[in-house]
Write a structure and sequence with these properties.
40% helix, single chain, 117 residues
Length: 117
């Protein structure tokens, strides 16, 4: 691609990514940077104080408006990045397991403290 055509393609990619991000969440901001020497884009999504990053192929972004499947795939990639940014991961409960006392509280010897029958 010629330098002028490449600049126009990247500008178009920025517009496509911004439209897709706004379709996910209106408060989602997008910053797109070129990766020198590659036809890839470094995309930063911002929601308030939270940030998340991903890399996308320039060709995949430019193909999105013409093909519904590729547009949906690109939107899902952006949504996955946004969701991992916004929501804390589930804690791994298997790491430290604390013993839990059996239900009913403390065990007493048979017939003691059970009250009237």
């Amino acid at each position: 691609m010629e330098s002028h055509d490449l600049a126009e393609a990247r500008q178009e990619a920025r517009k496509i990514l911004l439209d897709l991000a706004h379709s996910i969440d209106r408060r989602l901001d997008v910053e797109v940077r070129d990766i020198p020497g590659h036809e890839r884009l470094h995309v930063t999504l911002t929601h308030g104080q939270k940030h998340s990053h991903t890399e996308l192929s320039l060709q995949a972004v430019l193909a999105a408006p013409a093909d519904a499947v590729s547009k949906h795939e690109l939107k899902l990639k952006l949504k996955r990045v946004a969701d991992t940014m916004l929501f804390r991961p589930m804690p791994n409960h298997r790491v430290s397991v604390k013993p839990v006392p059996p239900p009913g509280g403390q065990q007493t010897p048979r017939g003691v403290g059970r009250g009237r029958r």
